[in-house]
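Field reference: sequence -> structure
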Amino acid sequence: MSDTTPDSLIPYDEIVQEALRAVVGRVLGSVERGGGSLPGNHHFYITFKTAAPGVSIPRHLSERFTDEMTIVLQNKFWDLNVGADGFSVGLTFSGIPAKLQIPFAAITAFVDPAVDFGLQFQAAAVEPAPRDAAGNDGTGDPERADDGSVAPKDDGSNVVTVDFGRKK
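Structure field:
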């Protein structure tokens, strides 16, 4: 008997991640249909890749968050619109209103701390922003030693983590 696992011809990891991202869509869609108010103490932390295809955020945010960003949907958000492939929402950052468009495929984490529920996802591969000879990426920030690029780290993992923790 062999100790190696055969390569699957069925992309189970992609199928599971797509299904779990649909959970995020259903939850946000429920909030949208409920008039945009979160029930009870529910609130969401949503982490996403800022340079993923389809993400649209203001330039000052993409310059500040070159790889990932976490938003909180709790009290002050507006115009939540949920579609088949993603959502848009209005939020305020340092007193400046902003509209964000986030595809579900860009989400790397979704957490509702009110009920200890969380999902983590593998991010789709994102190409780093092109840099000039001086190491600038067009935002005026030179490349840092810790490599602040948006390229994902390939850790070889394709595991989706589902956390159904219970409150004690």
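Note: The first strand starts at residue 44 and ends at 49.
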